[in-house]
Amino acid sequence: MKFLFYCGAFCGAISGTVAVPAVAQQGEPLARVEAERERTERVAREIWELAELGYQETRSSGLLIDELEGAGFTIRPGVADIPTAFVAEWGSAGPVIGLLAEFDALPGITQSDAPTRDPVEGKHAGHACGHNLFGAGSLTAAIAIRNWLEATGTPGRVRLYGTPAEEGGSGKVYMARAGLFDDADFVIDWHPADANSAASRMSLANRSAKFRFRGTSAHAAGAPERGRSALDGVEAMNMMVNMMREHTSMDTRIHYVITDGGKAPNVVPDFAEVFYYVRHSDADEVRALWPRIEAAAQGAAMGTGTKVDWEIIHGNNPTLPLESLQTMMDAKLRSLQPVEYTPAELEWARGIRESLGEDAPALVQSREVEPYGVETGYGSTDVGDVSRAVPTVSVRTATWVPGTSAHSWQAVAASGHSYGAKGTQQAAKAMVLAAVELYTNPQLRDRAKAEFTAALGEGYVYESLLGDRAPPLDYRN
Question: What is the pLDDT of residues 264-321, one digit of tens each?
Fold first, then answer.
């Protein structure tokens, strides 16, 4: 069994902080999170029901804004030329600590909150990555921090960034590019998961594009010689890229999906589209791979007598974890009492676990904290660009049944259930404790900023993988 312990003076030692009595360090901030439990559950469920796609999250974004305005935050809506992005802030002096809030759903996957497969008829998207929980948990944390700052008179400003379209839309990259994080001192991030962890986790750099081939339509049987198949162009490109995989480095990940391949077999398609992702742990390697992808597209067009153009859709830099901040967050996470589930919630979780197979982890993992370590994840996130603009600390909490994969129907179900809401409250508590530490510990702030500067390297200049394109507000249309 992994270890879980109450964190007192020992946690102060590993995070570089001076231990203070538990009541002063935790009690009041945690009580303020508990006071917001109903809000967490209500907002999480409402966003889950809405299940709005990237850059189309009008009601989800509006819901968060309404809650923040009611709590006294000042709102800047529509930032970075994105209608559903916003910045909410409370306070006028002291360190600026931001929290990230996502709220976009994934297309093509639906599920009720039942523990068995149950697609929702007429619904075409679902919160399979738990961004409804992400938005609700960060909202709760921001309001609890605001109330703690006011009650204690601690100098500080708390800021909530409403960040749309994480799933392939890179909303935070456009916000970073617009300089919205430049005056923040620190940013706190979290994400739903099937386990509790504050490991120093680096993600992969990622760039995507839609490659659009155009040919000449004709009757596929009556006049095939007159046609030039755009789908042939897509298939030729895919074949060349698949051969290219043998000649890339080990960390490379390339995925594609044909988004339009024609409508009828007896019509030579004059338009076809394929959507590509390219990932690597090093952003420069993504930049080096990309011309080879473009060359494959151009060669495919030449060989099939078609034309091709492409549009960069999104691009993310790898995350930049800072050990000084991650060990601090690890200590805060371990200091929390484990989540207590009701008998009904445990019965529901056993149903989900049964669907995951015999080798799924035990349910008790939701109450434990993973050992701290340094690791590379194979996903990508636009939090990477935020972490290169401002020192950023992240945490993951068990909102899903252990063994659940993101982007699965099991994740959708948990994200709409009280099981997921309880893990969300745990994340809010960890974020609030981390924020209190940063507001009150100038030595930690100085050490983290020095580590951040050293990690970026002398002369570092931020460069997005998106170039200067405008936000693709229609990428989910």
Answer: 999 999 999 999 999 999 999 999 999 999 999 999 999 999 999 999 999 999 999 9
All residues at 6 or more sequence positions from 178 whose CB lies less than 8 Å from its CB, including other chains: 79, 80, 81
Candidates 3.40.630.10, 3.90.960.10, 1.20.272.10, 3.20.10.10; CATH matching 9-203+318-456 = 3.40.630.10
Residue with tokens 């859709």: 313
Read off the pTM: 0.90
Residue closest to 336 by CA, chosen among 437, 426, 398 = 426
Name the strand (E) or helix (H) holding 278.
Answer: strand 271-280
pLDDT band at 262 (very low <50, low <70, confident <90, very high): very high
266 Cβ contact partners less than 8 Å away, ≥ 6 residues apart: 219, 220, 221
CATH topology of domain 205-316: Alpha-Beta Plaits (3.30.70)
For residues 69, 133, 78 and 145, what is the CA-based torsion angle, rounded to 10 degrees? Answer: 40
- Contact, 142 vs 158, CB < 8 A? yes
> Residue ranges of the alpha helices (H) in 51-104?
58-70
Q: 187-229: per-residue pLDDT in tens? A: 999 999 999 999 999 999 999 999 999 999 999 999 999 999 9
The domain spans of the chain are 9-203+318-456, 205-316
Give the helix ranges, DSSP H, for 212-281.
230-244
Task: Please give the structure tokens belonging to residue 262.
Answer: 């024609």
Q: 430 and 423 in contact (C-beta within 8 Å)? A: no
d(Cα 327, Cα 200) in Å, to the nearest integer? 8
